[in-house]
Design brief:
This protein has 8 helices and 8 strands; from the N terminus they run E-E-E-H-E-H-E-H-E-H-H-H-E-H-E-H. The chain has an 8-stranded mixed beta sheet, sandwiched between helices.
Length: 252
């Protein structure tokens, strides 16, 4: 395995792409094997990066034969004000596509996988990828706003901090929230998408998932829903990971 760290920002050293790459084939008389690739966007409410998610998923995808990349995108106020995290992921996929030959990546096989806030970010840039996996996603910021308002004080405070981080306001307007809600980024260029959600989710994810699914269907985008029956919201070690790997490999 080769591990490389690729800087993505001229002004923020904490924004980089970590590449976990399979070694080149030892038999030089045969054509080199190309592999599918995945860029992982961990969660963390735009205020942190969940390193445990990143480590576990990178190991799983690498073991499954993927050229694997983990994105450390811009986090924390005031740095993560949109569109900066979006720019980070756009730069990441541009880098991977530009170096696809040297990374020995199979054409048409670059996926993005995001978890929670990372899934929100992935959904905003998914049109630049060949496939997308959105696990426990935040998809509708207005729904999250309404949920936060009717929740306990700690949850409400977390929602407000996330909005302050990405939008610069603890109580943004409906229009400001809609501007970065995922369904408004769906188009005919949105790739086949797998959405993983939990039955024990208390973030009102299910209504967001169905609204996103409806918008995808209206745009003739292939979308599949996968219910994680045995894991809680944010579970990144469940059987869904292997199913997501199989789903990505099955896409043509």
């Amino acid at each position: 395995m080769i591990i490389n760290q690729i800087p993505l920002s001229d002004y923020n050293d904490s924004v980089y792409l970590t590449a976990y790459l399979h070694l080149r084939d030892s038999n030089r008389f045969e054509p080199e094997t190309t592999r599918p690739a995945v860029i992982i966007c961990p969660g963390g409410a735009y205020m942190g990066i969940n390193e445990a998610e990143a480590e576990y998923l990178s190991c799983q995808f690498l073991a499954a034969g993927f050229q694997t990349f983990v994105l450390n995108y811009t986090i924390g106020a005031p740095y993560a004000r949109f569109p900066y995290p979006i720019i980070d992921l756009e730069r990441a996929i541009d880098h991977v596509r530009a170096h696809a030959d040297s990374y020995r990546i199979t054409k048409g096989k670059i996926a993005v996988i995001g978890l929670s806030a990372g899934a929100h970010l992935a959904s905003l840039v998914s049109s630049k990828f060949d496939m997308a996996v959105l696990a426990y996603p935040i998809l509708d910021l207005n729904t999250i706003d309404a949920f936060g308002c009717r929740s306990n004080e700690s949850t409400k405070a977390m929602v407000e901090m996330m909005f302050s981080t990405i939008l610069g306001n603890t109580s943004p307007t409906t229009d400001a929230l809609a501007q970065y809600s995922s369904k408004n980024f769906v188009s005919a260029q949105t790739p086949p998408t797998l959405i993983v959600y939990s039955v024990s989710d208390d973030w009102d994810t299910l209504s967001q998932v169905h609204a996103y699914e409806k918008t995808c269907t209206e745009n003739n985008v292939s979308v599949r829903l996968m219910q994680n029956k045995f894991g809680a919201q944010g579970d990144y070690t469940g059987t869904w990971v292997q199913e997501a790997i199989n789903w990505i490999k099955s896409q043509t």
